[in-house]
Specification:
single chain; 393 residues; alpha+beta; Alpha-Beta Plaits; 3 domains; 4-stranded antiparallel beta sheet; disordered C terminus; repeat; Hud_Sxl_RNA; RNA-binding; RNA binding
Length: 393
């Protein structure tokens, strides 16, 4: 029965001891990552059992019973765990297209992992590369930093992945190349690659590690709506760059009619993503151009929408804040109307405070509605959209 599958979950059998805690040595706990999706729990057990006595083995699966690509192996002793790590880390598992180079290491407790995961990494993701950039070119660009174990380019996306042999080599590559090296007038972005398994390992923490990483990298990134279709990347750079080298990168994306084929006839406008060198340049861009018609930028006739770019998590949080504020305003109006009906001489209270601006740059909220006797409360200040400020209180 051990390692057999029942209702999308694997059965794990082990001996029960009176002092069960003593049989689970935390230093003998191993985690295997980047496993082929076709590898089941029994195969994972068989892969590791030749290196020592396994107390328990668990392959992490989703609700459908499909592998998440990582699993845990608890050995009896630290020596056996070390032996398995030495033998299997970096080895290839699977056949054909499913063959993968797995990563095997000691599994640390959450608090220890949080302290060290930012300090030890070898995998990097490089983005903002030309769409036709090749693996050979990427290798040539990063080879000076040390031994490269593997390299991969995502065709047509301008994104690649590099796995160095040592953490120090990866860290040096970030230090020397991130937003400092330019290709075709665009600064490349070099970051630690956070695998999906790391997100699963960090569930329950306050923030998604990928979202946190993006927030730090793009804290000076401005998102602009309603760029004319005829405007080129160079046109946008010239229009929004007050001084040479203010802008590190410009990306344009065409927006099409909803649920329509992406053809020229269905194109509506472009959105721009502008990464500034400093936060003050990004703030000035918002102050100068938000809700203004960009006279001189192609055939512009519509005011721009300019704000700090936000991650999906931040957008969701902003939406939740706005919904909360709407509910509070609605409840306030109900109470106000009830009081007026009960007491015609009821005098309305002061208007509520303006909503607080979102932590990374949302708009200031709308002031709460005052009682009928006093009129409306003040509208929240839009300064909430500028970083480190909030709506009028």
């Amino acid at each position: 029965m051990n390692n057999t599958k029942l209702k999308n979950k694997y059965i794990r059998l082990s001996m029960k001891h009176k002092e069960n805690k003593l049989t689970f040595n935390p230093e003998a706990n191993v985690i295997a990552r980047n496993l082929p999706k076709t590898l089941d729990q029994k195969q994972l057990f068989d892969l590791f059992k030749q290196h020592g006595s396994i107390v328990t083995c668990k392959l992490e699966v989703d609700q459908r019973g499909e592998s998440k690509g990582f699993g845990y192996i608890q050995f009896k002793t630290k020596e056996e765990a070390d032996k398995a790590i030495t033998a299997l880390n970096g080895s290839k598992v699977g056949k054909g297209e499913q063959e993968k180079e797995i990563t095997v290491s000691q599994h640390m407790k959450l608090e220890s992992r949080c302290n060290t995961q930012q300090e030890h990494f070898t995998n990097l993701v490089i983005s903002n590369l030309p769409a036709d950039f090749t693996e050979k070119q990427l290798r040539g660009l990063f080879a000076p930093f040390g031994d490269i174990i593997s390299i991969k380019m995502i065709e047509g996306q301008g994104k690649g992945f590099i796995n160095f042999k040592m953490h120090e080599q990866a860290a040096e590559a970030i230090k020397k190349m991130h937003l400092k090296h330019q290709i075709q007038n665009q600064a490349i972005i070099v970051q630690r690659h956070i695998a999906k398994s790391d997100i699963d390992l960090n569930r329950g923490q306050n923030s998604n590690p990928i979202s946190s990483n993006l927030s730090r990298t793009f804290e000076n990134n401005v998102f602009i709506k309603y760029i004319p279709l005829k405007a080129s990347q160079n046109d946008v750079r010239k229009y929004f760059e007050e001084n040479p080298d203010d802008i590190l990168s410009v990306k344009l994306k065409t927006i099409y009619k909803k649920n329509m084929e992406q053809t020229e006839a269905n194109a509506l406008y472009q959105s721009a993503f502008i990464l500034y060198k400093e936060n003050k340049f990004a703030q000035r861009c918002i102050q100068l151009h938000d809700q203004k018609i960009p006279t001189g930028l192609a055939d512009a006739t519509k005011p721009l929408g300019v704000d700090f770019w936000m991650t999906k998590e931040e957008k969701k949080q902003e939406d939740r804040n706005q919904q909360q504020q709407m509910v509070q305003t609605f409840l306030h109006q109900i109470v106000e109307n009830f009081n007026i009906q009960q007491n015609p001489n009821f005098r309305g209270g002061r208007g509520g405070r303006g909503g607080r601006g979102f932590a990374r740059g949302g708009r200031g909220g709308r002031g709460g509605r005052g009682g009928r006797g006093e009129g409306r409360g003040p509208r929240g200040d839009n300064n909430g959209k500028y970083r480190n400020n909030s709506g009028n209180q």
